[in-house]
Design brief:
The protein is an alpha+beta fold. It has helices at residues 39-46, 48-59, 66-88, 106-113, 116-139, 144-186, and strands at 13-15, 21-25, 30-33, 93-95, 102-103. It is built from 6 helices and 5 strands; from the N terminus they run E-E-E-H-H-H-E-E-H-H-H.
Length: 187
């Protein structure tokens, strides 16, 4: 990934007046500036529920009952949430009473990254993940709760895959327009 362009975006992610990415915490109404050094760790914690769901789906058969799996999942959510709120956010620079103005868009962030190869690989990977999660759920004979959880994860993965696909198409359209402008200016 290029060092100067951040692809971090999503709900509660905004830009401050200096162009820095800021996480808005709805509970304390403060903004937390996400530095380039903390961005990867933040991204991992930002998608914590999605990651925990995938792990629970994949490890669902290793626990004897769905109740045990559910307890492990709830325990993981509580631990990660406590770490995020009580430890990780404390390491970030705080903007008191942050005013939410410029929201970042996932599509815009992907297009601005200008990394076509990575974008198409992510699109294919997310779409394949959505298919594999459903196949896994059917193959493992999951009960209704895990089948629903698998379906939700698959829908989200498919959605992110489609967003990356659309971004890839728009990146190629922008490239064609740039080439036409250069050719027009050349002649």
């Amino acid at each position: 990934m290029r060092k100067d362009i951040s692809s971090l975006s999503g709900s509660n992610i905004y830009l401050d007046m200096y162009g820095d990415k800021v996480y808005y915490n709805i509970f304390d109404k403060n903004g937390y500036i996400i530095s380039k050094q903390m961005e990867n760790k933040f991204r991992l914690l930002y998608y914590r529920y999605y990651i925990i769901c995938i792990v629970i789906i994949l490890l669902g058969n290793y626990f004897h009952t769905w109740q045990n799996t559910l307890l492990v999942g709830i325990g993981a959510v509580v631990l990660v949430e406590l770490y995020f709120r009580l430890s990780f956010l404390k390491k970030l620079k705080v903007i008191k009473n942050f005013k939410r103005e410029k929201k970042t868009s996932l599509m815009e962030s992907i297009i601005n990254s200008k990394e076509k190869e990575r974008v198409i690989m992510k699109a294919i990977a997310y779409i394949l993940l959505s298919i594999l999660v459903i196949i896994n759920a059917i193959q493992q004979n999951f009960n209704l709760m895990f089948l629903i959880l698998s379906t939700l994860v698959a829908i989200y993965s498919f959605y992110i895959g489609i967003i990356n696909s659309i971004a890839f198409i728009k990146m190629n359209k922008n490239r064609i327009v740039d080439v036409k402008i250069k050719l027009k200016n050349k002649y």
